Here is the input.
Amino acid sequence: MVRKLYGLLANPVAHSKSPVMQQAAFAALSYDAVYVPFDVQPEMFATAVAGLRAINVAGFNVSMPYKQRIMAYLDEVDEDAQTLQSVNTVVHQNGKWLGYSTDGLGFWRSLPAGKYSRVVILGAGGAARAIIATGLQQAGVSEITVFNRVSMNFTEHATDLRHLADIELQDLADESNLAKALQQADLLVNTTSVGMRDATSPLTREQMALLSDQATVVDIIYRDAPTTFLELAGQRPKQNGLPMLIAQGAASFEIWTGMQPNIAVMQRAVKKG
Ligand code: ATR
Here is the structure.
């Protein structure tokens, strides 16, 4: 048996939890593989990808800023990943490189069991699009409302969203619209980077109070200290970005190995760092 090589292509890559998480998952199943982070500069991307081909890598993850760029180098791209124009998982199978996106699947698999009929999403970037595209395929989801600040990206986000899901992007500053959506929401998700590094929140305390007590609140930001957004969610069911991170990694692991990883092992590895 030849030891298999997996890796992560990103820039920067140092902060990523994937290496420790995947390595622990391999070890738990005595799967003879190593997972290495590769910090690839944009001008070296094509060379790095050619190198991975040459050394017969078994598979890899792709993260910022290469999730779209990798697509041109793949033999086949899964339909959902094609729709999203985003690939985070590549597997080498029968001499071919196949690309998938596990971000949206990871998000929905990570949620506590329940019915999420009306969904409100804050932010309209890559993560939001993955969550929305998979969300449309979830049984029980009847409506997804998406809010973004009016920035120089608004028109582009709005066009992308219309094409992806036939959803009209809403202005986060439109108070009455936002209030209505929050009052009806079963699930509220922050996909913006607001609160990642400081104590800011994309919603005020008053806005958060409009949610029902049963509404589930998810912040896809993962950090050790709770975000202000999740603090404002109070006693409602809530989770941070860790379960999504683990579930998308678990989905990649399944694609590579055909086996179910041990989620608890992955969780412990990420928490330990
Ligand atoms: P990701 O892949 O994590 O989704 P992204 O595609 O860069 O990252 O998207 C980031 C999202 O956070 C966008 O919706 C972005 O809004 P803009 O495109 O208008 O910047 C949102 N975001 C980032 N900083 C924000 C802020 N200070 N206030 C509100 N939204 C913010």
Observations:
- The pocket of 2'-monophosphoadenosine-5'-diphosphate is lined by residues 123-128, 148-149, 151, 153, 191-194, 202 (CB under 6 Å).
